[in-house]
Amino acid sequence: MSRVVLAIKLFLICYENQLYSIINISLIKVKIMTKQYSNKSGQLVIELRQRFLEEYDNNRDLYNDEDVDTIRTNDWYVKRFLLARRRDVDQAFHMIRDTMRWRQQFGLSDMKDTDFPAEFYKVGGLFSYEKDLEGNVVIYLRIRMHRKIPEMAEPIKKFLMFIVNKVDKEVDGNGMAIVFDCSGAGYSNMDMDFLSFLITAGNSYFPVGLKYILVYELSWLLNAFRKIAMSLIPQTFLPLIKFADKSNVKQYITTEALPDFMGGTCKRNYRYVPNGCTTVAKLAIENGFTQTDIDRILPFYEPLLEEADKALQNNHYINKINDKNDIELNEINETKDIIKDSIVCQNKTIQKSTIMGIFPNDFIQLIYSSHSESYESNVLLQNLSDTPIAYKIQCNNANNYIVYPRLGVIMSGANVRCNIQLMSEQSYRKHDKFLIVSVPVNDHKLTVNQFAKLWTENDTKTNIYSHKLLTTLSEFVNENNSNVLMGKKMAESDLNEEVVTLRSLCQQLERRQTQLSLLLYVLLIAMSILLILVLYSHSYTEFLSLESLTIRKFAPKVFVTNE
User: 280 and 339 share a domain?
Assistant: First the structure.
């Protein structure tokens, strides 16, 4: 009996110790969870929120409802303003009030991806990318691609703030970094107004959101601009400025997360154009610019777009579809049974209706759409196999087309409708064609790097299937004015060709003028050096003559006597 009592006591002791351990662990977890919002700031957050909501009730037209909801529900967002003003509630109130008014006036919360021209995305001059070593999302600004165009200053500023705001929401204000890529930049790319706007906005409207600014490959030729820029930066921002080059940039960002133009190996497409974007020409027209203004603006983007086309053709980029870095997964469509019989399998070695189905399977007929004001068509892809299939769509004239979704993973039995749009400002060419490549995969959850390796590894190369589609431009536009509109498009095409030729000649003249200016500059330096040498030689000759005369004048006379 005593043994039973002893066993029960031992059990109770062990149970009591285990219970204490569980309670202690729970208390530690609670402390960790509540660490971010300490009691020191908790009451101030409530006070600051209440003051702003009273201001909102009196001036509702000055604020955006979505921004106000963020203040109501997000303690950390409110606390950021307190931290920026050292927990001074009065100063934090003025800061948060001015920020909310600026966001409403700027229209920041209402901006969408498609509000900006396709050229802004395609040149790859401003974009968010992979995270750095500290886990911060990085925004890249390629300075050499920036041009100070007065007519485009406002849209470019809005595009910058849209990217910054999008990243700030994505990370909930917990850290982002900005990289100024100065490689290849010159004084023609410097824009003090743009830099001043960025510094003011980052300091005033996104408090405690920026972890650091990394200036990459700053040339000594831009030292004068560097001094001016540093004078504009507030003292609180100066510790955030860091400098790097090719030798030490990996101290901040790994090679796998760096874009290719900085020596990285990441294959994520930083030139990705969202479906439904407008163009620079259309944006200029909407803002009331004349055709003369448009003809002057477009040449700034042409060399950058040509560079983008070459990069897209020579590299296998992967589009980031969602915020988890996963490749897009296309779900099952309810109409799959209806269209299954009309789809032709692309694989030549495996039986039909077992791999990939494509409809149409021969020609893509581009039809004019009054909604998008461009020619477009849809291609239907269906997975007819028992495993997921990864696919991507390539084009021999990528500059003229927007394809969405261009790549992804299709589950077994599912299908996806891909929209192909001919950009309205580009002329159609009869030899334009598309190549659809696909490969079976074991897992539909692929990261960007895993998706890129599918097309290069030897194990999967043998399982890659391809199907070519030609294009044709439909003569039918609409029932009433098809002939008129087609004639207008043909006239615009001829005019575009003439404009392109003239622009090419102008660019050649500009290059020759630059070369001539450089030659004159070199000649001027050479003549200056020669003049200095001549003057120096003349001065030195005079000095020698004067010295010889002085020696003769003051030299002691020697008398010679004959004894």
Answer: no
Q: Tens digit of pLDDT for each residue in 212-265? A: 999 999 988 787 778 888 887 888 788 899 999 999 999 999 999 999 999 999
Q: In what order do the strands lie in the sheet with 241-244?
A: 126-131, 137-142, 176-181, 210-216, 241-244
Percent of the chain past pLDDT 70, that is, above it, reads 75
Pair 99, 191 in one domain? no
pLDDT > 80? residue 279: yes
- Phi first, then psi, for residue 384 (nearest 5°) are -105, 10
**Angle at CA of residue 304, ends 303 and 309, nearest 5°:** 95
CA–CA dist 63, 55 (Å, integer): 10
Q: How many domains does the chain have?
A: 3
Domain presence at residue 512: no
CATH number at residue 268: 3.40.525.10
Domain end point (choices 108, 140, 166): 108
- For residues 438 and 379, is the Cβ–Cβ distance under 8 A? no
End-of-domain residue from the set 108, 124, 148: 108
Give rounded-to-5 percent helix, strand, coil for the chain.
Answer: 50, 20, 30
pLDDT at residue 526 above 90?
Answer: no
- Between helix 75-84 and helix 65-73 the angle, nearest 10°, is 90
Taking alpha carbons only, the member of 424, 300, 413 closest to residue 374 is 424
Whichever domain contains 339, its CATH number is 2.60.40.10
Residues 151 and 280 in one domain: yes
Q: Report which residue type is found at 377.
A: S
**Percent of all residues in the chain with a pLDDT value above 90, rounded to a whole number:** 30
How far apart are alpha carbons 280 and 155 in whole angstroms? 10
Query: Do both 169 and 276 map to the same domain?
Result: yes
**β-sheet bridge partners, residue 278:** 117
- Answer yes or no: do 72 and 146 share one domain: no
CA distance 375 to 473: 8
Query: What value does the mean pLDDT of the chain take?
Result: 78
Could you read off the pLDDT of 53-92 as tens digits, one per residue? Answer: 999 999 999 999 999 999 999 999 999 999 999 999 999 9
pLDDT of residue 2: 52
Lowest mean pLDDT among 2-11, 245-254, 535-544: 2-11
- Flag whether 6 is in a domain: no
Q: For residue 268, is it within any domain?
A: yes
Q: Which domain holds residue 54?
A: 37-108
| Separation between Cα atoms, residue 104 and residue 59, nearest integer Å | 12
Asked whether 333 and 414 are in contact (CB, 8 A), the reply is yes
Together in a domain, 78 and 191 = no
75 in any annotated domain: yes
pLDDT surpassing 90 at residue 27: no
Q: Is the pLDDT of residue 169 over 80?
A: yes
- Per-residue pLDDT, averaged over 25-51, amounts to 64
Asked if residue 441 lies in contact with residue 390, where contact means CB atoms within 8 angstroms, the answer is yes
Q: Are residues 66 and 205 in the same domain?
A: no
Closest CA to 207 of 115, 85, 306: 85
Residue 259 shares a structural domain with residue 196: yes
